[in-house]
Design goal:
single chain; alpha/beta; Rossmann fold; 7-stranded mixed β-sheet; globular; binds S-adenosylmethionine
């Protein structure tokens, strides 16, 4: 295959994935939460925000695998990456695309059970969670439940990385205070459609494990 053909094949694959994603958005707009998969630049920002030393990573809401690919390109070993995707069609797509990665047809609200069942990860020892979920459209109670599950699987200094389409942290200051979290906007991608902002949430120093 020539270089041009490789590029053309990649573009055809991306177009097919985008159409698949869009069809799922038509079926489940609130859950899929975006019209199109993230762009590659945003995906690289999300992977970078997991931290240089991250080894064990969970991705929530893999979609068509743009962030999964960026995590693997950044050096996360497939055996230490767990991807959760609850949409059946997108889960099947991810499992086909990344046969070496553990892709669970699981709900992020049951993250602790999913990590417990995973081959290469342990509860309490995950370095980073890369979330593609629509946190901003969740109720306060849903956000709290998701973050409590996430904090249980992360190690003490672990990071919860979230991209969002508004330039503010999707968790309210009250909820952050309640959970002992600090938030930092670490990057953004204005060329993404829509433009997106990447936040890192971590436990404040001295905050007890929840
Ligand atoms: C905004 S899309 C992001 C997809 C991909 N990470 C990207 O950046 O292109 C959100 C994804 O999360 C999935 N999802 C939504 N709620 C979920 C849940 N509770 N558990 C697992 N996956 C979920 C959706 O099916 C969708 O694929």
């Amino acid at each position: 295959m020539t270089r041009g053909e490789t590029g053309a094949a990649r573009e055809a694959g991306e177009l097919e994935a985008a159409l698949k994603f869009f069809r799922q958005w038509l079926r489940e707009p609130r859950s899929v939460a975006a019209l199109a998969p993230s762009g590659r630049v945003l995906a690289r920002h999300v992977a970078a925000a997991c931290g240089r030393n991250a080894r064990r990573v969970v991705e929530l809401g893999g979609g068509t695998g743009v962030v999964t690919e960026a995590l693997l390109e950044r050096g996360i070993e497939p055996r230490h990456l767990l991807v959760l995707e609850r949409n059946a069609d997108l889960h099947a797509h991810l499992a086909r695309r990344f046969p070496e990665v553990e892709v669970a047809a699981a709900d992020a609200f049951h993250l602790v059970d999913a990590v417990r069942a995973a081959r290469g990860l342990e509860v309490g020892r995950v370095d980073a969670i890369a979330s593609g979920l629509g946190l901003i459209t969740m109720s306060r109670d849903e956000q709290r439940r998701l973050m409590l599950q996430s904090l249980e699987v992360l190690r003490g200094a672990g990071r919860f990385v979230q991209f969002t389409y508004v330039p503010r942290c999707p968790l309210s200051p009250e909820l952050r205070r309640e959970l002992g979290l600090e938030a930092r906007r670490v990057s953004w991608s204005l060329r993404n459609l829509p433009p997106a902002f990447v936040y890192v949430l971590r436990r404040r120093r001295g905050t007890a494990l929840r």
